[in-house]
Amino acid sequence: MAARSVGRRLLIVGCIFFLAAAAQAAEIRVRVDDGAGAPVADAVLSLNRVGGTPTTPRKASATMDQHDLRFAPFVLPVQAGTTVTFPNSDNVRHQVYSFSASKRFQLSLYTGNHASTVLFDQPGIVTLGCNIHDWMVGYVVVLDTPYFAKTAADGSASIANLPAGEYVVHLWHPRIEDATSQVVEQHLVVAGAPLQRDFHLHLRAPDQSNMPPAGLEMGLGHRMRPHGT
To answer: What band does 13 get if pLDDT is binned at 50, 70 and 90?
Structure first.
């Protein structure tokens, strides 16, 4: 009887501990604009915990497709340790490569979904190209934290289940001025309540990266999709 009572007390203590830990988890919601009020899509938000232990790279998978002669998605954020698959949904051949310092590779000419995979094990910005289609540009943003998100077309993003603590907040975008992530908040304190932040990025003018020349869709055998879908 005494053992059963002790067991119940331990269970209650464990439940209280779990509920307290869950109550400490928080969410940050952000909106990113270009400084003039226009929403910024494809900005990568990442949080690094201050004074925390180094994050162990996780084994995960993601996909960088190629359709309508574009990389899809245009920007793919992943945690270091992620394996990315490169299928080809077009009916023409592609040859994907990267000369970026954090991950150099080249995939042979290929069609269809029998795609190669690449392990992205080092943090950094990996710029993708296609040897056949010069306008094709994509980005794999490899992060040393599990806390990240990408803004949608309306400039919004959110990260949930953040442990309580202090964080450094970074933002990156392909058209950012110096091509490196910007620290937009140095001491973000997470306690439990949801946080809302508005950030402003000064970006270079839009270009035609990852956009095929006008009219080139003729002969592809399918209708072009709108950019970003």
So the answer is: very low
Domain boundary assignment for the chain: 26-53+147-202, 56-144
Class of 26-53+147-202 in CATH: mainly beta
- Which stretches does DSSP call E strand in the chain? 26-33, 44-49, 60-63, 65-67, 70-72, 75-79, 82-85, 96-100, 103-106, 117-120, 124-130, 137-143, 148-150, 156-162, 165-172, 182-190, 195-200
Q: What is the pLDDT of residues 164-200, one digit of tens each?
A: 999 999 999 999 987 889 999 999 999 988 999 999 9
pTM as predicted: 0.82
Fold of 56-144: Immunoglobulin-like (2.60.40)
